[in-house]
Structure formats: structure tokens, C-alpha cells
């Protein structure tokens, strides 16, 4: 019963994130540094009971974006959860480039090309024995579309024979004029 209750709680959290991704204002008038948000999300995972090693690579200089910081946290959390859930237990890499590209990589088995095409569909899970909801990448894909960005998935990780890589490219937002 406890397992079922936890699963329902996780599902309701994902559905709330999806509703926010579809309905909330995700772009802001002013740019903000997104590095502290990523640092906070990674620290949250580091404190979890089933913590995996997560390597965070951030630029020294601020990375500014006109994206709601809660949306950035939702994206990061979902990509990291996906890497934890479907990886082989090895180190997870979270990297933010100076151009605001966010990349999360894990080691593990490759995802077949035909399966890659449906991973951002709702309720599609990469591993059918997992108890995830199949909403994480759909949520990230929805946010990406709403902020003028693109989610790019690779398996295997470029330059390797294994793993999975998810990258959220920088939003293509017209600059505000005064």
C-alpha cells in the first residue's frame, strides 16, 4: 500500500508539472542567471537517500535566460530523474554551457532508434519494468516547445558506445525592445 501511495504521489506531481508546462507563463521579461537553480536541483538529488554521484559542470560566468526559473528546475529535475531511473548506476553528468545549453548524460544500455522516436510521448517509458510515469521527457519536451527551445536526445552518447544524452538547446527568444 505504501508503494502504491508513493507512486500515486509521484504521478500527481508529474501531472502538476505537465499542467504548469502547458498553461503557465514560462518566459520572463528579465533575464536571470540559471546556474543557481541547477546547483540547487543537483544538491537536492545529492541529499536523497538513494543518491547517485552527479557531476555538475557550470560556467564561471552567469548564464542568463528569460525562462521562468521554476521551469528550469522542472526541466533539470526531470532530466536527472530520467538519467537515474534508466542509467546503470554510474555517474550522471549535468552540464550547462555558456550559451545556455543544458545537457544530462548517463551511462547504461543504449535505447534502440525506433524507441527513441517515442520517448517524448506521454506515458511512454524507456524501461517497461520501471515504475515511472512516462511523463518526464514529455514534460521537458512541452517546456522546450513553449520557450522556443528544442530537446535533443542521443543514444548512445556521442563519442561513446553506451548511455543516453538529453540536451535542452538555448531558447530562441526575440530580444525585448524598450
Give a description of the structure.
α1 runs parallel beside α5 and α2 runs parallel beside α3. The strands form two sheets. Strands 2-4-5-7-6 form a five-stranded mixed sheet. It has a two-stranded antiparallel sheet with strand order 1-3. The longest helix has 22 residues. It contains five helices and seven strands; from the N terminus they run αβαββαββααββ. The chain is α+β, with helices and mostly antiparallel strands and 178 residues long. The mean pLDDT is 84.
Keywords, separated by commas or semicolons:
alpha+beta; single chain; about 180 residues; two-stranded antiparallel ribbon; about 20% strand
Structure at a glance:
The protein is an alpha+beta fold. Helix content is 38%, strand content 19%.
Question: What's the layout of helices and strands?
Answer:
Layout: H1 2-23, E1 27-33, H2 35-46, E2 54-57, E3 64-67, H3 69-86, E4 92-96, E5 102-106, H4 113-116, H5 136-146, E6 151-154, E7 164-168
Parallel strand pairs: 2-4
Antiparallel strand pairs: 1-3, 4-5, 5-7, 6-7
Helix pairs in contact: 1-5, 2-3, 3-5
| Helical amount | 25-40%
How far do the termini sit from each other?
A: 57 Å
Structural class: alpha+beta
In N-to-C order, the SSE pattern is HEHEEHEEHHEE
pLDDT < 50 stretches: none
Q: List how many beta strands DSSP finds.
A: 7
Question: Number of helical segments?
Answer: 5
Main beta sheet strand tally, sense and closure: 5 strands, mixed
- Radius of gyration from the alpha-carbon trace, in angstroms: 16 Å
Which term fits the overall shape? globular
Report the portion of residues in β strands.
15-25%
Overall pLDDT level: 84
As laid out across the biggest beta sheet, the strand order is 2-4-5-7-6
Amino acid at each position: 500500500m505504501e508503494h502504491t501511495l508513493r507512486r500515486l504521489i509521484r504521478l500527481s506531481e508529474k501531472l502538476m508539472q505537465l499542467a504548469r508546462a502547458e498553461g503557465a507563463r514560462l518566459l520572463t521579461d528579465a533575464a536571470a542567471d540559471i546556474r543557481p537553480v541547477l546547483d540547487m536541483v543537483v544538491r537536492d538529488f545529492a541529499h536523497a537517500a538513494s543518491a547517485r554521484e552527479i557531476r555538475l559542470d557550470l560556467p564561471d560566468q552567469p548564464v542568463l535566460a528569460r525562462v521562468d526559473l521554476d521551469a528550469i528546475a522542472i526541466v533539470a529535475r526531470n532530466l536527472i530523474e530520467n538519467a537515474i531511473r534508466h542509467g546503470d548506476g554510474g555517474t550522471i553528468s549535468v552540464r550547462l554551457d555558456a550559451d545556455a545549453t543544458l545537457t544530462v548524460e548517463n551511462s547504461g544500455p543504449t535505447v534502440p532508434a525506433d524507441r527513441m522516436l517515442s520517448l517524448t510521448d506521454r506515458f511512454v517509458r524507456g524501461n517497461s519494468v520501471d515504475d515511472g510515469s512516462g511523463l518526464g521527457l514529455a514534460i521537458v519536451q512541452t517546456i522546450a516547445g513553449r520557450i522556443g527551445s528544442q530537446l535533443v536526445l542521443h543514444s548512445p552518447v556521442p563519442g561513446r558506445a553506451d548511455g543516453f544524452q538529453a540536451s535542452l538547446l538555448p531558447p530562441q527568444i526575440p530580444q525585448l525592445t524598450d
